[in-house]
């Protein structure tokens, strides 16, 4: 697939539309696109990256023909989709192929931002965490149809201007009907961010996103990956386990070692860690909803002392976080 370049070396969006056989233009914004990348293949999606726009082509995936495929387009106002990437429009081709056009996020993804050489500013990291939480709250409660993203991870959080987070990649998302609160489906997501209920043949709720979010929240706090076998000390390899151990032993400063900004804000840092521990509870009934998570993150409600996330230490009668 190719489109002619203008004399200025730019693609016109209408040239892209007209160059796709059998395509239909839907709510497209006309602009010039300067190509910087060609094709990047990831999983089953071929993505063409352009300076101001991302064009994603779905390959042989039937669900992209339904509302489940792209929840962002099933809403009347995709630009409001709670910190998700803006959809300029889409092309509809013959067969199963679809082209989706998003605004290109020039600051890359959260993974590159967090795990680079330099540790990002603490206040900026906290702002990103709050923004992602509010985005998931929109998907779970405020969107016209309830959406379970199913693959929340740093690589699916894109950073727009001013490091504003946008939730992206809805290829694995589940759209719930108005009378549904849970659904059954095959295991979805990325290793290290997948909640226990996926492996227990249980119905799936929005709380799988809550789990994934707060694994990522710990990564945001610590600026390290959730699983890192190269770290000194076996006890530090799994971030969720190590974070709880540090909290239980009163050694939260170890999580942000040499981060003077975070060390000077231990009150907020402790609150975020406690929220994360609540959200990674393997016992589903203990894991709060996104509404509760957002209120706790923002300090609107008190965060109780969390129990051990491990189900073997779980005693339901001791502590409960109300929905």
If helices are DSSP runs of H or I spanning 4 or more residues, what is the number of helices?
Answer: 8
Rough outline = globular
Across the major sheet, the strand order is 2-7-8-6-5-4
Total strand count, please? 12
In the predicted model, the low-confidence regions spanning at least 5 consecutive residues are: 1-53, 58-83, 313-322
N- to C-terminal distance: 49 Å
Question: Could you give a short account of the major beta sheet?
Answer: 6 strands, antiparallel
Fill in the CATH topology of the largest domain. Transferase(Phosphotransferase), domain 1
What helical percentage do the residues reach? 25-40%
Order of helices and strands: EHEEEEEEEHHEEEEHHHHH
Approximate strand percentage: 5-15%
Chain-averaged pLDDT: 74
Task: Write up this protein.
With 323 residues, this protein is of the alpha+beta class. The chain folds into 2 domains: 10-103, Phosphorylase Kinase, domain 1; 110-313, Transferase(Phosphotransferase), domain 1, CATH 1.10.510. Helices cover 26% and strands 14% of the residues. It has helices spanning 13-18, 110-114, 122-142, 207-222, 239-248, 260-263, 266-279, 290-297, and strands spanning 10-12, 25-26, 32-34, 40-42, 45-49, 53-58, 87-92, 98-103, 147-148, 157-159, 165-167, 174-175. The strands form 4 sheets. The protein has a 6-stranded antiparallel sheet with strand order 2-7-8-6-5-4, with no helix packed on it. The protein is globular, with a radius of gyration of 21 Å. Keywords: Membrane, Signal, Transmembrane, Transmembrane helix. This is Protein kinase domain-containing protein. The chain crosses the membrane at residues 37-55.
